[in-house]
User: Fold this.
Amino acid sequence: MNYLSSKQMNAAALLAQGKLCREAAEAVKVRPGTISKWKQEYEFQALVNVLRAEALEAALACIQTLAAEAASTIGELLKAGSPHAVRLKAAEVVLAHAGLTDQQSGHWYWNVGPTSGDGVRWQKIRALKAAGLEAGFRNSTDERRV
Assistant:
């Protein structure tokens, strides 16, 4: 990741914060198409994922400090009537939109993705193999066919 330009690193930080491509492009003074091209590069994708992971870790630390109070509130909501159930469902929706995913097991996890260029590349290769398309896989920064 250390060969990315300062504009790429700044754009990655903005995208990790949830900014749109055009907002990131405007901020780093490039065209939106340039951001779209960068988003196809493994190292850029990995940096965005690392920055997202760091932000999510900070949010998780904050959430963990409130865990006892949240558990108590959830306990009260579970005992209470319908209006509280609606509030609880709303809280679950907010958590889901904040980047948490409920894996039918009842466990919440952060959905970030690989945090290295190779990790992104192999994730894409596995997805293409699963779809039967791996023979034509190519990356703009990788001229080799897989």
Remarks:
- The radius of gyration is 20 Å.
- The first strand starts at residue 100 and ends at 103.
- The chain has a mean pLDDT of 77.
- The helical segments are 6-16, 21-28, 32-38, 42-65, 67-79, 82-97, 117-131.
